[in-house]
Specification:
Elements (H helix, E strand, L loop, with lengths): L13 E5 L4 H12 L3 E6 L13 E4 L8 H6 L7 E4 L15 H25 L6 E8 L10 H20 L5 E8 L5 H14 L3 H12 L11 H13 L8 E4 L9
Helix pairs in contact: 3-4, 5-6
Bound molecules: NADP nicotinamide-adenine-dinucleotide phosphate.
The site of NADP nicotinamide-adenine-dinucleotide phosphate (NAP) has 26 residues, from helix 1 and strand 5.
Length: 261
């Protein structure tokens, strides 16, 4: 356990990670636990359905229901040092001709309203003398919309504005709220799809990945998917900046919004 992961009294620092049953959230919760943090991770599925190992306190809660927030926020019993909002509802939008109202509503609830209202609840419960870094994971999808992605992009754009409001409200508090904007992640599903295409074409996986990135967003200037290690370094960087990270937008997105942003 490093000095950076203990409080002034030597107790482990407390982190809350949402979306901790899968993908980036699960990876982040595992890495924080490995670094000596005391981690609570929240996902929707039951603990028995989370891929092992789960070296942290896992709790199942449906974050689209605001009634769950007081219990999730209060799980630290004494406040949090770091909160990472990674939960997301995709509704498989890439593969569906049109999302229904209910799926779009669920996206807005999980992707935008949950991080906003859960953070407000956390800040309300946080002891006045304990500093809390809140990192909100967002997506380069907020910069672009087409007929498939518009509801998802809208939920992420709403999240960005709600996050800015949270940061403004932290001027007078011992807290910082920052945004981590991510581009295409090196996750299991993308990796499996690209590997299958490479196999079919008899091409190298790196070459297929490079073409996929160029085609999926012409503004991207990276040739590899974004790895979880880089995401974790960025989260720790935002946390290490303390108050100075309030309102900050850290873009680990391969330049996907173009040159000016
Ligand atoms: N993957 C990418 O390429 C990419 C690109 C840019 C940005 N991002 C951002 O990175 C973050 C993580 O994405 P990911 O792809 O790693 O996610 P993921 O693998 O799809 O995992 C989503 C997580 O959110 C949880 N979740 C969904 N609905 C929930 C609900 N109602 N209540 C509680 N938990 C709920 C899921 O729990 P269950 O599975 O248990 O339901 C799961 O743990 C997101 O903010 C996403 O926008 C991802």
């Amino acid at each position: 356990m490093t000095a950076n992961t203990t409080t002034g009294y030597g107790a482990p620092r407390r982190a809350l990670v949402t979306g901790a049953s899968h993908g980036l959230g699960l990876d982040t919760a595992r890495r924080l636990a490995a670094d000596g943090w005391s981690v609570t991770g929240v996902g929707r599925r039951p603990a028995t359905a989370v891929e092992q190992p789960v070296p942290f306190d896992y709790r199942s809660a449906n974050l689209s229901l605001p009634g769950t927030y007081p219990e999730v926020a209060g799980a630290a019993n004494g406040g949090w040092d770091l909160v990472v909002h990674s939960a997301v509802h995709y509704a498989d939008f890439h593969h569906r001709p049109r999302l229904g109202f209910a799926d779009t509503e669920e996206m807005l609830r999980v992707n935008a309203l949950a991080p906003y209202y859960l953070t407000l609840e956390i800040l309300d419960q946080q002891p006045a003398d304990r500093f809390c870094s809140v990192v909100v994971v967002n997506s380069e999808a907020m910069y672009h919309a087409d007929r498939h992605s518009a509801p998802y992009a809208a939920s992420k754009a709403a999240l960005r504005l709600l996050t800015a409001g949270l940061a403004e409200s932290c001027r007078e508090r011992r807290a910082a709220v920052s945004t981590l904007v991510l581009g295409p992640l090196d996750d299991e599903r993308k990796r499996a799809d690209l590997r299958a295409i490479a196999g079919k074409l008899g091409a190298r996986e790196e070459e297929v990945t490079r073409k996929f990135l160029k085609r999926s967003n012409p503004d991207l200037v990276i040739e590899e998917l974004i790895d979880y290690t880089s995401c974790f370094h960025s989260i720790r960087h935002l946390q290490n900046l303390g108050r100075r990270a309030n309102g900050m937008v850290c873009r680990l997105d391969g330049g996907s919004a173009g040159s000016l942003i």
